[in-house]
Specification:
With about 700 residues, this protein is an alpha/beta fold. The protein has four domains: about 130 residues, PriA, 3(prime) DNA-binding domain (GIY-YIG endonuclease, 3-Layer(aba) Sandwich); about 190 residues, P-loop containing nucleotide triphosphate hydrolases (Rossmann fold), CATH 3.40.50; about 230 residues, Rossmann fold, CATH 3.40.50; about 80 residues, 2-Layer Sandwich (Alpha-Beta Plaits). It contains 20 helices and 26 strands. The strands form six sheets. A seven-stranded parallel beta sheet has the order 8-9-7-10-11-6-12, with helices on both faces. It has a six-stranded parallel beta sheet with strand order 13-22-21-14-20-19, with helices on both faces. A five-stranded antiparallel beta sheet has the order 2-1-4-3-5, with no helix packed on it. Helix 5 packs parallel to helix 6, helix 6 packs across helix 7 and helix 10 packs across helix 18.
Length: about 700
């Protein structure tokens, strides 16, 4: 650890520190004091003979206490108190949990120490690699070690530990030799050399632009198999449980049973901890999981894979909000392991890794891309609808209507709609003023064709709504959701089954029969033989979001949907053709778009070309934090500006300020904000400022 382990130093803001053990405390009055004056009781604790000092990371998230503290190891706990185990200690007069980081011969101070109260479990769950990684991630994101460890180590289940202890397990076998004829990496000019480097135990790092189609999971499985045959472990992080299932199936086909585990929240705490212990104890050498798996204790890591790094599902909602891309890149760098950051598109963050030389670009040549990509056509939002009444009913331009009608003869057609629900936004039919709730000013929506409008914030029915501007009482749709789209398509294509896939119910897969599949972004189910066509509707909704990454995110969602279409199948996108994101989709060239986007961000001074911290709290708390922070030279404070209040939120109004620095000063910015947080924590500030380094949203 980087901090001195002197647990007896005076800690500002605490009335009691772990200095004097209970049996050495000055005798007081009464029966307890009389007993203490008689001398130590029979069986008094004595320190262990060797390395009697334990350095403990206490489970406290206060920034000014973010360092290890020294405790004495009693002789009776000598064998159980191993580095990495869970312990209970007395801290500031209370029993708290912690992790034993290391044992040493001497403490760094001369004060008297408290003993460990007990060892919760002798299982060494916090490995040295994960402990040092947690320390670095905490410093990188201006957080605390305790917060990162909560993300890295799952809660303990004693019954599962006991079961795993009885079942010692056997050493995993070597994966079988994969057939060279069915190697997905042969479709990429640098694919074979990437696998060769993994097999030789080297550390190749690549930003992978995958070909459209379903073979991305098989390609990841082949890279993992090659890594395992080279004697090292592998870690794969994907966005959601459906992607975990696809990679899990591919790994099972490639490796067989027993060499890997899948870690997802859907498993439940007990089963997830059981599989996590299998990785910790070396019975599983490869892991695939969602973002929580980025800290999985894979032994001798040889390959770290992140699929679709631009998906906002990867964003960690708990402090200190680390992103898997940063964590896996850091793990690969520290372990001298290979790294593979892939997707159908490319993010500006991944482009920075290529520009700096940390990783190399891995993509197919243009001839191979043209054979695999769909044929994309665009139609403007103001395009004239077909003369056919059915096309007008489905609000489809003529190009999209004809493409869907022709493709349905050969199989299913995918229809991507940006918004879920029926009509999530309505307005006055006469003057187009958006409709809002009279009670809370929330947006009004329609849940179905026969229901009254309701408020999306407070849920109140607004059956007597009248426009506050012109007094008109009729409404029109501002945005049409997936349910309304499915209803319209059902009328336009009679006799064709219409299925929906969204947050309420996500389809796992669709068959080869003709059908219209209406899905929201990220919920598109793969088709058994690929979709015959795809319609990407309401592009203005995605492109018009007030977000720095709106264009990049829109292209990612479009390409993820279009990649499910058969090669050379038609894809129609409802957006203006002159827009850069539309042109990138038509050419299937996400790399050029990402490079152009990064150049524009660099000129404007936005992430990832610069580093930025978001501070959210009341205005007084933000001013206090900025006054305490010794910001690096060149730091620029933007704002603060009011933060929109969430539905049902209570308490004072909050604001958000942005602190921007050059990319080279990112570490200095995080250090300055963490020190300022520590100062406020030590003086027991009434409010905590939420600090996010490089947040995904800057609106």
């Amino acid at each position: 650890m980087t901090e001195d382990g002197g647990g007896a130093d005076l800690i500002p803001g605490l009335d009691e520190v772990p200095r004097v053990p209970a049996e050495k405390a000055p005798p007081g009055k009464g029966a307890a004091g009389k007993a203490a004056r008689k001398g130590p009781k029979k069986g008094a604790r004595s320190p262990a003979a060797e390395r009697p000092i334990a350095r403990v990371a206490v489970d406290m998230s206060l920034p000014h206490l973010d360092r290890p503290f020294d405790y004495l190891v009693p002789a009776e706990l000598d064998a159980a108190a191993v580095p990495g185990c869970r312990v209970r200690v007395r801290f500031a007069g209370q029993l708290v949990d912690g992790f034993l980081l290391e044992r040493v011969e001497e403490s760094g101070h001369g004060g008297k120490l408290l003993y460990l109260e007990r060892v919760t479990s002798p299982e060494s769950v916090l490995t040295p690699e994960i402990a040092s990684l947690a320390r670095e991630i905490a410093d990188r994101y201006a957080g605390t070690f305790a917060d990162v460890v909560r993300l890295a180590v799952p809660p303990r289940h004693a019954r599962v530990e006991a079961e795993a202890a009885k079942d010692g397990g056997e050493a995993p076998e070597e994966p079988p030799e994969p057939p060279e004829a069915d190697n997905p990496w042969l479709e990429y000019p640098a694919g074979a050399s990437f696998l060769t480097a993994l097999a030789d135990g080297r550390a190749p790092r690549a930003v992978w632009t995958a070909l459209p189609g379903p073979r991305w999971a098989a390609a990841i499985a082949r890279a993992v198999a090659v890594t395992l045959r080279g004697g090292r472990g592998a870690l794969v992080v994907v966005a959601d449980g459906r992607d975990v299932a696809r990679v899990d199936a591919a790994l099972t086909a490639e490796l067989g049973e027993g060499l890997h585990v899948a870690l997802t929240a859907e498993l439940g705490p007990a089963e997830r901890y059981r599989r996590w212990l299998a990785v910790l104890r070396g019975r599983a050498r490869a892991v695939v999981g969602t973002r929580a798996a980025m800290f999985a204790p894979v032994a001798d890591l040889g390959l770290a894979v992140l699929w679709d790094d631009g998906d906002d599902v990867h964003a960690e909602p708990h402090a200190p909000y680390p992103h898997p891309r940063e964590v896996l890149a850091l793990r690969a760098h520290r372990a001298r392991a290979g790294a593979l950051i892939g997707g159908f598109t490319r993010t500006t963050d991944a482009t920075v890794l290529v520009e700096t030389g940390w990783a190399h670009s891995l993509a197919a040549d243009r001839a191979r891309v043209r054979r695999a990509m769909p044929r994309v056509r665009y139609v403007g939002e103001d395009a004239q609808l077909a003369r056919d009444a059915a096309a007008r009913t489905a609000r489809l331009p003529n190009v999209a209507f004809e493409a869907a009608r022709g493709a349905l003869e050969h199989g299913p057609v995918l229809v991507q709609v940006p918004r879920r629900g029926y009509v999530p936004g309505i307005a006055c039919a006469r003057c187009r003023t958006p409709a809002h709730c009279a009670t809370c000013q929330g947006p009004l929506a329609l849940p179905s064709s026969h229901a009254a409008p309701y408020c999306r914030w407070c849920g109140r029915i607004a059956g007597d709504w009248h426009c506050p501007e012109c007094g008109f009482f009729q409404m029109r749709a501002l945005v049409v959701g997936a349910k309304r789209t499915a209803e319209e398509l059902g009328r336009a294509f009679p006799g064709v089954p219409v299925r929906t896939s969204g947050r309420e119910a996500i389809l796992e897969q669709v068959g080869p029969d003709r059908a219209l599949v209406v899905a929201t972004p990220g919920a598109e189910p793969p088709a058994e033989a690929g979709y015959t066509a795809a319609l990407l509707l309401d592009g203005w909704v995605l492109l018009g979001r007030p977000d720095l990454r709106a264009g990049e995110e829109t292209l990612r969602r479009w390409m993820n949907a279009a990649a499910l279409v058969r090669p050379e199948g038609p894809v129609v996108v409802a957006a203006e053709g002159a827009l850069p994101a539309v042109q990138a989709l038509v050419r299937w060239d996400p790399v050029t778009y990402a490079e152009r986007e990064l150049a524009e961000r660099r000129e404007a001074g936005f992430p990832p070309a610069a580093r930025m911290a978001s501070l959210t709290a009341t205005p007084a708390a933000i001013r206090e934090l900025l006054a305490d922070a010794r910001l690096p030279d060149g730091a620029e404070v933007l704002g603060p500006v009011p933060v929109p209040r969430q539905p049902g939120a209570e308490g004072p109004e909050k604001e958000r300020a942005l602190v921007r620095v050059p990319r080279s000063a990112g570490q200095a910015l995080a250090r300055a904000l963490k020190e300022a947080q520590g100062v406020r924590s030590a003086r027991k500030a009434a409010e905590t400022v939420r600090v996010q380094i490089d947040p995904l949203e800057l609106i």
